[in-house]
Amino acid sequence: MASAALGTTLRQIHRLLSEGSLAGLSDEQLLTRYVAERDEAAFEAVVARHGPMVVGVCRSILRDEHAAEDAFQATFLVLARKANAISDRDSLGGWLHRVAYRIAVAAGVERQRRRQAEASASVLSDRSEGRGDWHSVLHEEIDRLPEVLRAPIVLCYLQELTYEQAAQQLSWTVPTLRSRLAKARGKLRSRLIRRGLIGAVGLLGGLADARWAIAAIPAHWIRRVVSNAAGAPAVSGTAVTLASAMLRTMAFSRTKGFAIVAVSAAVTMASFGLLAASFQGNGKGLAQEPVNKVLPRVIPPPVSPPVRPTRDMPGATVEVRGQVVDPAGKPVAGASLRIDQYVTGLAKPAEGGEPTAKSGTDGRFTLTVPRDVIDMLSQGLARRASRVVASASGFGLGWAEAGSRSDNVHDVTIRMVEDDVPLEGRVLDLEGRPIAGALVRTSDVFDPPGRDLSPWIETFKNGVNGPYDGLDSMPLQLTRTTGPDGRFRLDGVGRERVVMFTIFGPTIELTRGFAMTKETPPIRAANPRIIAPKTVVYHGCRFDYIAAPGRVVTGVVRDQDTAAPLVGVEIHGMSFDSSNLAYYKEVNAISDEQGRYRLVGLGQADHYRLFATPGQGQPYPTAEFIEKSTAFGSQSAIIDLRLKRGILVRGRVTDKATGKPLVASVVSFALRDNPHVKDFPAFGKAYEPRAYTDAEGRFEIAALPGPGILAARGYSDGYLSGVGAEAIPGMNSGLSVSALPHDVSPSHYHVFASLDFEPGAEPVTCDMQCDPGRSLSGTIVDPEGKPITGVWAHGLKPVQIINHPALETDQFQAIALDSKHPRRLYFFHEGRGLSGSVVVKGTESGPLVVQLQPQGVITGRIVDDDGEPKTRLELRSFNKPELNLLRGDILKGGRVDSEGRFRLVVVPGLAYGASAITEQSPGVRVRLFEAENLGPGEIRDLGDLRFKQPPGQ
């Protein structure tokens, strides 16, 4: 304990904190008591908590006892003067570190000015001065860190809390703390190296015994600052001068007390030894953690939900800052900023709409965002990072990530795109006549790498990429109306981009199209991603669009048994095509009080595919109808619909560890042998009943009577999959179970519940909990044992997205681990040609160290029976690597080029096998090879591999 290093007075205060009336009081409570009552004991308790850290900072920089005392007194004098202005009083440690550091630096400048005549004789002769300079540089770089990275450094290294204690004080999860601490160490390491300290091993090692930094605080230091806080002038004149200068700086900077870091109390200050060791660059030291980490690395979720901390209260926010610049890097004033979220409903909109902001004359902005959005990101739980989106007159839409999947929010720079290539089009009917009054609506804009479409166009035309491969997308909603000549002009997209749009009118069929803001002929190619249309056309920036004539479909929605009209049923419609599995929602209507609906914008077809989604609280399962039309030409088609009444299921979805409500989707299935399925003829064709939770995690969904399944999935990858699946008949083997509308796999949902109702049953309640499981952290090193950054990792989350960025540091964290189902993690460094893997359960003591080695490469060429190259193929792993952990998963290089060649990057020591799938038959696999096991750095060419076409293809 640090109390061994404290003086007698401080030990008594420490005992009071532990046993007396101040036990358990937070910094916020102590400061509130001091401000409201001028409670001397409360202020004295604050000094006891944070004094060791403050004096350590002052001594590290000043290296003079008298000067350190002045800086120490000045720091707490500033606290006494600013206590009532600190907005987050429970976040005091980081605030005091910043104040102490800056006061000590100012005191050092003044002291150096007085000693300038002596400086030439003492630059290199005193080794302790060298250590002092090192301490000063270290504190300077800690001060430069953003608040969210400085907080864990102060807690874990300067105040010696364990990970669990620090996470609790910060209201973070332990995985979040580890991730941010790792990034903070990485930033400090790189900055120190840039400042020329790469060879300072002697100084770094000398810090391990620098116990002078946490020597006892003299009792008279404490008495003086406490007496001064109580109104008696007791501190030195120098301390008053330093404090006054700091208070003036605060007033001018308008930073509300230096933007408080959420750091809580401790009664000790760690030596800098381990922190310094973590920057030595020797591989081993970089992976070390604070020396007092004695708790287990993996902590199981608490049995009972904890008290929700202040920062998680409804309405809590965080500020996202950044700058908007033009293509040349100059500030853009007056740009509108908003936050874009990948999943609708990830956070509740702010009162009055989504959070927005405007950039100032210097292009800078501050956007206030709901705290829960950033927390989802910083814990690595959201499927994609939220992005800040900027729009400004004369520019195309700009955006930048506000935070990564493993990082907290950070400052962003949004570089806008020139908008000098508008889309200019003309909408014509089949006879070439202009169509006036048609609506042209954009839905998405796609941005190519380097903001140059030419490379993407070439790969797309040559069949190397699909229509969306290699493009970054962002929703973009613009609407234009065609004039009397059928023309429209679409600004605001930005040059060298692709935009998706629909064209709609009362007399034409609603159709979807693509255009490029580039002077180029149209591109026509097969579309493997969407089954229909089979061919997709990308127009240039000037084009004519031929619209087909439309038709109106009307009808009445009724109860199947009583014929009573149903109100509030949403109907979506599209022309029926047996090869089209897409579910388009642009043409829609909601049934009125008489059950009537009217769809405008469908094509003139023989059959229509209609989807019925009853409103919330209605016990009717989702239904799909394929209905014949007897209408001719432009005549309206009349199609009545009947829905069968099911059972209404209500419940809540919550996090098992915290008890908090989750944003989640809930789906209802019927087992295929359910005898009541025959009574629901419109159920089970393609789309299942689905509900979404509200802000409290509540849902309502309709289910069929008889045996069925209720499955929930949170909008987060941070939960175990398949919880409760063992209770589902036929799913206890871990494989998918036969169900309607489609089979159900335990890996696709987080939690399951078994259903079995009698027909006509009253509404039932079914609450569901998503389990975050266990987590495990580690470090990645190269073949020489040195930490390595820029590594691409796969398997860190139970649900994987292949197209994600490389890790920013040498640290990784695997979440939602289940000891019953081990998971293999894969690591690749493309630039250095390294790879590695490890199998984890979450029960390991950790943290792990994964050493990469030269990757293996499998090459070959795929040919048909005539020896001609097979193209437009994609290679997938043969069998399922997750069921056999000795098999490797094909993650890199699965596409075949225009000459039939492929190049697979693999992890040495694992057995690899591959199958090929075609764009025409994505569900059919053709085995190519199996059981290829490579050594480190081995390149194996398999030569020509025969692709045997499946029968009937």
From TrEMBL:
Residues 138-188 form the RNA polymerase sigma factor 70 region 4 type domain. It holds the Pfam family Sigma70_r2. Keywords: Membrane, Sigma factor, Transcription, Transcription regulation, Transmembrane, Transmembrane helix. The chain crosses the membrane at residues 197-219, 225-246, 258-279. It comes from the Bacteria. InterPro entries: RNA_pol_sigma-70-like (IPR039425), RNA_pol_sigma-70_dom (IPR014284), RNA_pol_sigma70_r2 (IPR007627), RNA_pol_sigma70_r4_t2 (IPR013249), RNA_pol_sigma_r2 (IPR013325), RNA_pol_sigma_r3/r4-like (IPR013324), WH-like_DNA-bd_sf (IPR036388). One of its GO terms (molecular function) is DNA binding. GO terms for biological process: DNA-templated transcription initiation. Residues 47-103 form the RNA polymerase sigma-70 region domain. PANTHER family: RNA POLYMERASE ECF-TYPE SIGMA FACTO, RNA POLYMERASE SIGMA FACTOR. Belongs to the sigma-70 factor family. ECF subfamily. This is RNA polymerase sigma factor, sigma-70 family.
